[in-house]
Amino acid sequence: MSSLTHRTIRAGSAYRSHGAGQSVQGQKVRQRLQTVVTLTPSPVVDRVYFFEDLVPGAVNRAFAVEEYLGGNGINVARTLTLAGNTTSAVIPVCHLDNSGLALVQGEGDLVRIVSVSAPIRVNTVLVSSGGSTTNANQKPGHLPEPEWRSVCEATLDQLRAMDADWLVVAGSLPQASDGHTVDLRWLLHQARELGAKVCLDINGPDLCRWANSNLVDLVKPNVPELEQFAGHPLRTVGDVVNAARSLADAGIGTVLASMGGDGLIGLGPDGVLWARPPKTPVVNTTGAGDAALAGFLSETCLDPGGPTGAHNRRTSFAEALARSAGWGAVAVGRSTTALGGLTEVPDVIVQEPDPVYRLGNA
């Protein structure tokens, strides 16, 4: 990968040029938008309070409060739709939850509702003008087996109807009757049988449970989740790369590891790369990882004729990583996870990882 040792990529260019051919290091490639079904097993209502200065343990006066429908899969679907991808978000909703149902209905055709008994959770987000974000996230509730089966069947129906490229299961998993989180095996197996690739963006313990199932093509852990999988702290980029390799060795095809302000590590069949966006003023970090995942999934670069060479595959992977890091950088500068647009996407440096670079290095 010497040609990608240090390369700046215009992360927003793919978003602005759907359907156009791009010349990538002398090779002509074409881009294809993706058809994606997301499942948010435990959606939330995000209530965001904005403060000039947030003082823990004191009475704080918010200068603004916003409320909207949240949840990882919903955020991913919104952003993919903004970029022109065909997307549907499956979400379980209690028909007696009037406030949550009203927010869901405001999403229009983006969502497919599955009726369940558990009300939508609440995520309270405290945002300080200094750039810190604090989340108080309600635990997922209990979902009886018949209701979970209905959610899975609705998701599979949506995959069939759309002939989807991807199934993305994102966010916290509800509790089953046995006290553990719901079982994903049947859903993931059926999705694979339908020809869809599977992406998991779920909590660390659940990610560890499904990492070696051989049913997952892509995962997007953050550093704390990778630390749970690795069993020790990750202090450098090299530590993150090694933990990502362990996930890949467990049977995951591609690992997209989020390192916050330090960018993203992408590890796939063609190697490992580090995408580094510029320093960005932070307004609200909630949903930045969802925007990054949407950026990675948004388009696939395909060789227009004959088998794709390793060099071409590697370049396409770099562009996907650059778009991922760029869209994540856009998200942290917005007040809510409903981005509203993908303008002013910054250029992103894509390079080979520096193993000794310390995370959080100023």
Automatic annotation (TrEMBL):
Identification of the protein by name: 1-phosphofructokinase family hexose kinase
Pfam families in alphabetical order: PfkB
Locate the Carbohydrate kinase PfkB domain: which residues? 49-337
Q: Which InterPro entries match?
A: Carboh/pur_kinase_PfkB_CS (IPR002173), PfkB_dom (IPR011611)
Taxonomic superkingdom: Bacteria
